[in-house]
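W.,

You were right to be curious about this one. When I first looked at the sequence I had no strong expectations either way, so I just let the prediction run and decided to look at it fresh. Below is the sequence, 88 residues in total, followed by the output.
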Amino acid sequence: MSATSPAPTGRKAIAGPGQFLIGSQGYGAFTTGRFGRDGAETARWASHGAMLVDKNGSASGPELENRLPSRSCFRRLAPDNSLVDGRR
């Protein structure tokens, strides 16, 4: 028998030419980062979800929180690393 070591789960999305998002959730992780072509992180948000990126490069989507009662909502990841709440 074998087992993988515990690690956060993740989601990925293309964020534009030469840019991508990586989100992590679990084991204390609950973040989304934007990375450039060279792999350097250029932004980080305290949220994780099924993010979509619009034609202007703005990421938003439903937050995927795994706690009860859930406080999850639709979030926009602002360019200044802040979060803009949508509907709950």
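Here's what jumped out at me. Strands lie at 9-16, 19-26, 29-36, 41-45, 52-53, 59-62, 74-77, 83-85. And, maybe more interesting for your project: The radius of gyration is 14 Å.

Coffee later to discuss?

I.
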